[in-house]
Design a protein that fits this description.
483 residues, Zinc Finger, Delta Prime, domain 3, three-stranded mixed sheet, 22 helices, elongated
Length: 483
């Protein structure tokens, strides 16, 4: 018994989940568009969603002995031979093993021959994206000027690899994954027909695990029927497809909440011994957290005190990213343990809020206004005497000269105010007596030196900052000053 083959759709009405494609094809056949105006059809989509099945149904609809019809009879010789893949006028070619230009040239010669028993010769090329560029070029001429009564039907899982020149000459259908509820409904019909006893939860699990492929779902159903001697339960389906029981995810989640990584790693050893793959574990954990989030949003369940809904969202995001990475890593087990460690130690939203609230409510120290220095108008004689002072310092101390040269003093009566940055303040204070002695010699009177720290740091250029970091020093003066 092969359920996928036995229950393969034979008519458009039996096709599950591809409403748009079947409706367009039925109408096109009804108004005699296919074969007259449309000579090439392209189906794309993932495995097991009906690409080859639709191709065969189109071939039967065109060649049914009862006439061209949107619903073939499946009882005449043509219909039955096409369903079995034995019709001489319907050629099913594997694009992966017949991908070269020589095979396409041979095909071009064969299509010139008239059909033996049918109205139309139908060429079905599966996985057409596997053809070489030269083979596509050879096929293009035939598509542009097809022989009479010849229909090409292409199927592919990678439409982006087909040249646009080919796609533009076809009636293109992008088939989508079949909805989970549609797959589940079809599985119930098959189970009833085959007298298979199965729980609804088990059917839903199979439908979910098939990822939109009805063929995969029927194969899983058959496998579960063989595995279970009596009624198929959710537990048995989980064992077959490698899904983890909800109770295990409950346990893992509680350990994540407590950041108990050692206990999680011990639990993962048990799960690994059960033969559950890392990818299935991550997908199951995503589903568990997603269900938990929904229940919390709608008030059906509450989270632990140290978690918020945002934390669950972040956990789901980590698992979604991990699923994409997992297929490329060399050691999936270690990577899964790393992901679980991340879940344990991500900052909780409540903790972050506490930190932010502390910053918002803390009392900031009172900032005192800097004492304003009374400045009098600078006199010509002050500038001259200051120049003489600089010349004298230049002869005695080059370092002091470099500092004073880039300082603009403010003169008061018997007082000179200078602003320096904090890095040289102490040095200037130590030299204060010496400086005041020199000022007395130049000015001929007692002059007090008032040294203050700059309240606003001078903006430095990137070059200056790099030099200071490299040599661990503070360059004196500003970038705008000379020297």
């Amino acid at each position: 018994m092969n359920l996928a083959r036995k229950y393969r759709p034979l008519t458009f009405s039996q096709v599950v989940g591809q409403t748009i494609a079947t409706r367009v094809l039925k109408n096109a056949i009804k108004i005699n568009k296919i074969g007259r105006d449309i000579t090439a059809i392209l189906f794309s989509g993932q495995r097991g969603i009906g690409k080859t099945t639709l191709a065969r149904i189109v071939a039967k609809a065109l060649n049914c002995e009862k006439g061209v019809t949107e619903e073939p009879c499946n009882a005449c010789e043509n219909c039955m031979s096409i369903s079995e893949g034995k019709n001489m006028d319907v050629l099913e070619i594997d694009g992966a093993s017949n991908r070269g230009i020589d095979e396409i040239r041979t095909l071009r010669e064969n299509v010139k021959l008239v059909p033996v028993k049918s109205r139309y010769k139908v060429i079905i090329i599966d996985e057409v994206h596997m053809l070489t560029q030269e083979a596509f070029n050879a096929l293009l001429k035939t598509l542009e000027e097809p022989p009479p009564n010849v229909i090409f039907i292409f199927a592919t899982t990678e439409p982006q690899r087909i040249p646009d020149t080919i796609v533009s000459r076809t009636l293109y259908f992008e088939l989508f994954p079949i909805k989970q509820e549609e797959i589940a409904e079809r599985l119930k019909e098959v189970a009833k027909e085959e007298n298979i006893k199965i729980d609804d939860d088990a059917i839903n699990r199979i439908a979910d695990a098939s990822e939109g492929s009805l063929r995969d779902a029927l194969t899983l159903l058959e496998k579960a029927h063989i595995y279970s001697s009596e009624k198929i339960t959710l537990k048995e389906v989980n064992e077959i497809i490698g899904f983890v029981e909800k109770e295990i995810y409950d346990d893992i989640f509680q350990k994540v909440v407590k950041s108990d990584l050692s206990a999680i790693l011990e639990k993962m050893k048990e799960i690994s011994m059960q033969g559950i793959t890392e990818i299935n574990f991550i997908r199951g954990f995503q589903e568990y957290l997603n269900d938990l989030l929904k229940k919390c949003v709608f008030g059906e369940k509450s989270l632990p005190a140290n978690l918020k809904e945002l934390d669950i969202v972040r956990m789901i995001k980590i698992l979604l990213d991990a699923e994409n990475v997992l297929r490329w890593v060399s050691n999936p087990r270690i990577y899964l343990e790393f992901v679980l460690a991340r879940l344990c130690f991500i900052p909780r939203s409540i903790e972050v809020e506490k930190i932010l609230n502390a910053f918002e409510t803390r009392e900031l120290p009172e900032v005192k206004e800097p004492k304003k220095v009374e400045v009098v108008e600078e006199k010509e004689e002050d500038r001259n005497e200051w120049g003489e002072f600089l010349e004298e310092i230049k002869k005695i101390n080059g370092t002091l000269f470099l500092i004073f040269e880039n300082i603009k003093p403010r003169f008061k009566e018997n007082e000179i105010v200078i602003e320096v940055n904090s890095s040289v303040y102490n040095m200037m204070e130590n030299k204060k007596d010496f400086i005041e002695e020199k000022l007395k010699e130049i000015y001929g009177r007692e002059v007090r030196l008032n040294i203050v720290v700059q309240t606003k740091e001078t903006k430095k250029s990137e070059a200056r900052e790099n030099l200071e970091k490299t040599f661990e020093l503070e360059l004196f003066g500003t970038d705008e000053s000379k020297g």
